[in-house]
Design a protein that fits this description.
Number of strands: 14
Largest sheet: 6 strands, mixed
Structural class: alpha+beta
Length: about 550
């Protein structure tokens, strides 16, 4: 590898190794940019934490966005004054202590929020459907045994949420063996691709994923059936097989015990159990993560983060109003008509302005909301993962938090102004994400409306399904994207999900029919699609109409 001025080749190689591990790419050179390599905001925290450990310094996340090329980033990190830097934290070894089933534990803030939502409205389903096509063969007996090992070694999958005297506590249950339902799916549709994944070329809003009916039926049934939180058995599994021998793996897991960041861990652990069925190893348990969160509360850093959010939300309306229909309509879900090659068309903008793809999507959503509502001040939410600490990099269990992004414009603001603001908002959110969203709400005390979540009733979700492809017991798993499941379980007025699958970008919109009518949802989606499609050409356009 060529070196750059002021950077010893050995140091550059050390840093390149960190980048290659985090970005899962080889041969990264000094002129390669974090953004052109496909770097996302969610990866940034992992990368700076890993680089900080490797070089013995604490690196602010903004450093990566201000010095986005490998060479200049390495220059900056190597040049940091070591005496002024905080020592890097050493990952703690997983604890080997055991907890008796009758010893009460505690919920995390995320779990309490999910539990409360279900208590307020028993019809709410916080289920997470997962589906993969299988290239190769999965043996049902080996898979069933691996699922049992997963439950036995990861306490979160045998955690009971028990109602005691009007309050809830967490207890550990005994290991249990998840039943594996075997599905006879008959003949696969003639136009189903070999990997049964969604590879439709018609990426219009009306194009649905070509998913075999039996797969959708099993997942819909699993989503309708409530889980018994007190039983602590919050996972359902099925292995479907077509007449030609192809298979699909289906899971339905309660959100109290899983999130998107846990899915790669789940697949890796199942593969490990298949490969080494008799070799258990210590793992970090979810109760350790819950204890870590509790320990952070009320510390100096926690109070600093809380003060940041108090300032960031000062004067903001708790609600970004959406045009509600005169009468409630059914919930809806559809796709954005995004062109092929969209990610590639945005690389130059990302590199020039030091922004991630998430920041571009946030800008397009913010501008669409400004134009649709006519408001000069809007907020929306985005999930973040509180697992940058190396100890919890392979945590199985939900670590989600919610960040609020705020966009304020004037009559003279252009789209570029919003992009730069979203850059700052996203970086601020990443730097101050340790405070739970519930704590922020309890502190700022916004006005509340039943059925609306303050500040985040519009939500932008980035879902990198590419990271969830995996090998399980010698078979390749490719994630399935099933649109039909989204409309019935819309939790916010408007949710925009950007999915990166096999190098393609897919945009999904879901909305609650009582808060946003279908026609208005389409109009807003058309604005968003138009902005994303020609984003580089829109940067100098006014955000609001000029009279």
């Amino acid at each position: 590898m060529d070196s750059v001025p002021n950077t010893p080749p050995g140091q550059l190689r050390r840093m390149a190794t960190v980048w290659e591990q985090v970005l899962k790419k080889g041969g990264i050179g000094p002129e390669d940019s974090f953004f052109t390599l496909g770097g996302q905001s969610v990866m940034a925290g992992t990368l700076v934490r890993a680089a900080g450990e490797r070089f013995g310094v604490r690196i602010p996340i903004r450093t990566l966005f201000e010095h986005s090329r490998l060479g200049e980033f390495t220059d900056h990190v190597v040049g940091l004054a070591l005496p002024a830097a905080l020592p890097a934290e050493t990952p703690a070894a997983p604890t080997s202590d055991t907890v008796l089933p009758d010893v009460p534990l505690e919920m995390t803030a995320f779990q309490r929020r999910i539990w409360l939502a279900e208590q307020i409205d028993p019809s709410v389903r916080n289920h997470v459907p997962l589906a993969w096509s299988v290239a190769g063969r999965l043996d049902p007996d080996r898979l069933r045994e691996a699922l049992g090992r997963l439950v036995a070694e990861h306490e979160i999958l045998r955690t009971r949420f028990v109602d005691e005297d009007g309050g809830w506590s967490v207890r550990l249950g005994e290991p249990w063996l998840p039943p594996l339902e075997l599905l006879d799916l008959g003949e696969a549709p003639d136009d189903t691709p070999d990997d049964i994944s969604d590879d439709t070329t018609d990426n219009t809003p009306d194009a649905a994923a070509d998913t075999p009916a039996g797969v959708t039926e099993w997942l819909e049934a699993a989503l309708r059936l409530p889980f018994d939180l007190e039983a602590g058995q919050l996972l359902r599994a099925a292995l479907g097989e077509f007449a030609d021998g192809r298979q699909v793996l289906l899971l339905c897991v309660h959100h109290m015990v899983i999130d998107g960041e846990s899915v790669p861990v789940l697949l890796a652990e199942l593969d490990r159990y298949c490969a080494t069925p008799e070799r258990p190893r210590p793992v970090v348990q979810y109760r350790e993560f819950a204890a870590h969160q509790r320990e952070q509360r009320d510390g100096a850093s926690w109070r600093t983060d809380l003060a940041y959010w108090e300032s960031a939300l000062d004067g903001a309306s708790a609600d970004t109003p959406l045009p509600a229909p005169d009468r409630p309509e059914p919930n809806g879900a559809f796709r954005l008509a995004l062109p092929a090659g969209l990610l590639d068309s945005l690389r130059a903008v990302q590199s020039e302005h030091g922004v991630s793809w998430f920041m571009v999507a946030a800008t397009a959503l913010a501008v669409s909301l400004h134009r649709s509502t006519g408001l000069d001040d809007v907020t929306f939410g985005s999930p973040t993962a509180n697992r940058n600490h190396p100890r919890f990099a392979e945590l199985f269990g939900p670590s989600l938090n919610t960040a609020v992004l705020r966009s304020r414009v004037t009559a003279d603001s252009i789209v570029l102004d919003v992009l730069l603001r979203m850059r700052g908002e996203a970086l601020g959110a990443l730097e101050h994400q340790a405070v739970e969203f519930d704590d922020v709400l309890n502190h700022v005390k916004p006005a509340r409306r039943f059925g609306y979540t303050p500040f985040v009733n519009v939500t932008l979700n980035m879902n990198l399904l590419d990271d969830h492809a995996a090998v399980l017991d010698g078979a390749r798993l490719a994630p399935l994207l099933i649109d039909e499941l989204r409309s019935g379980y819309a939790k916010f007025g408007l949710t925009v999900t950007m999915v990166q699958l096999d190098g393609r970008l897919i945009g999904l919109v879901s909305h609650r029919g009582d808060q946003l009518g279908a026609e208005d949802a389409r109009d807003l989606a058309d604005r968003l699609t138009g902005l994303l499609t020609r984003f580089p050409e829109t940067l100098n356009e006014p955000v609001l109409p000029r009279h």
